[in-house]
Amino acid sequence: MPLPKHKAADAKKIETERLQGFLQELLREEENKYCADCEQKQPRWASWNLGVFLCIRCAGLHRNLGVHISKVKSVTLDSWTSEQVQSMRVMGNAKARAVYENELPPLFRRPQTDQSLEQFIRAKYEAKRYIMKGWIHPPVDIADLPACPGSMIREKKVVATFSTVPKSTSTTSKQSSQDSNSQSDHVQTEIPQLIDFVSSPKSGHFALNQTGIKRDSNSIDDLFGPIVSAAPNIQNQQQSQLFAPQPPNLPFSQSSPNF
């Protein structure tokens, strides 16, 4: 039973994004950041049957070779199939250079003009002048294509990691709020004790002392006696010593007593 149109369109879109993810992943590799023929930065074209990434100038020269030699596509503007993407994954610029430039002279300088560059590309791919001897192109099997690019897997892992962060943060905030509440409760329980310690005594604990001053029966006077009465007692003792009768002064006898 065929799928509805909207579901078929969604499935096609998902497959296109999946294949595009593989291509972008290949372009992030260091070997594919430069054109396979002229070494210009940021190639955005490719010859999928040769398995190389190209700049726009070299892509035009590859088109001149014919599709029987080089099949050129735009990485971002054209649609790709699983077979084409897997062919790019099998080769890549580094492996393609090792194969198609195996016999290049050690001090070879890459051409810069369009005419010399076209001659080099024709000698490299059409005449196969520099190819590795006995080389056979590896088979391309779409079954070897992963279910999704590694970048998508990494993104899913990152999203899963970030989704766990708020939970730990909320747990920490709950613990901190509980700690603060327990501290505030502890302070609140201690404050009434301090207030009770300095608060006025209850009714029924007061009594009049000798001086007529109202005091607490459990105050410090009960332990050490009335402090107020200490000063008058000392003064009375001094006055009694001053007004006490003195013994009579006996005359000193110059003669020794007779024994």
UniProtKB/TrEMBL annotation:
SUPFAM superfamilies: ArfGap/RecO-like zinc finger. Residues 20-131 form the Arf-GAP domain. PANTHER family: FI20236P1 (PTHR45705). This is Arf-GAP domain-containing protein. Coiled coil: none annotated. One of its GO terms (molecular function) is zinc ion binding. Residues 234-243 have a biased composition (Polar residues). Keywords: GTPase activation, Metal-binding, Zinc, Zinc-finger. GO terms for cellular component: cytoplasm. Pfam families: ArfGap. Residues 167-185 have a biased composition (Low complexity). It comes from Meloidogyne incognita. PROSITE patterns: ARFGAP. Residues 164-188, 234-259 are annotated as: Disordered. The keyword Cell inner membrane does not apply.
